[in-house]
Amino acid sequence: MSAASAKSPNWTAISATAGGLWLAGLAALIAIAPRSEDGIEWFEQISPGGWMAWSLPVALFFYIIAGLLVLFTLLAIRFPETPRRGVLRIETTRGDRLFITLLGSALIHLGWLFFFGAPVWWALAICLVYAVAVFRWV
């Protein structure tokens, strides 16, 4: 079989399947969240007595990170890229820029908590601007 006659993958189906699985996992996470008569108990443990305090926000945080890793893997397969040099003068790929964004966002949140305390909504807004800047210029 020649390379010209090789069938290319159906990326629409792959994307729809990955998105559907991600949404199904999100629905499952919300379904197992502790509830009271007032609604979801956001900060109660999902698994009482477990080895880690898995509250819904903690589980969503790790679920979103895992989803980003899957998304970036699919993007790397579908749209291969060559590393580029940005303002840091090092070669970076999308995955490198994601790592820099996550690391910087953690530091921004820790700094916000140190100087201002909770809530961290403004730190999240700063992190979104930071992420756009990293993906644009780094």
Please outline what is shown here.
This protein has 138 residues and is mostly helical. The chain has helices at 11-31, 56-78, 94-115, 121-137; strands spanning 35-36, 39-40, 84-85, 91-92.
CA-atom Rg in angstroms: 19 Å
Quaternary structure annotation: single chain
Task: Estimate the strand proportion.
Answer: 5-15%
Number of domains: 2
User: Count of helical segments?
Assistant: 4
Mean pLDDT: 90
SSE topology string:
HEEHEEHH
Unreliable sequence segments: none
Q: Please give the order of strands in the largest beta sheet.
A: 1-2
Shape: flat
Amino-to-carboxy terminus distance: 42 Å
Sheet with most strands: 2 strands, antiparallel
Percent helix, as a range, is 55-70%
Count of distinct strands? 4
Summing up helix and strand content along with how strands pair, one would put the structural category as mainly alpha
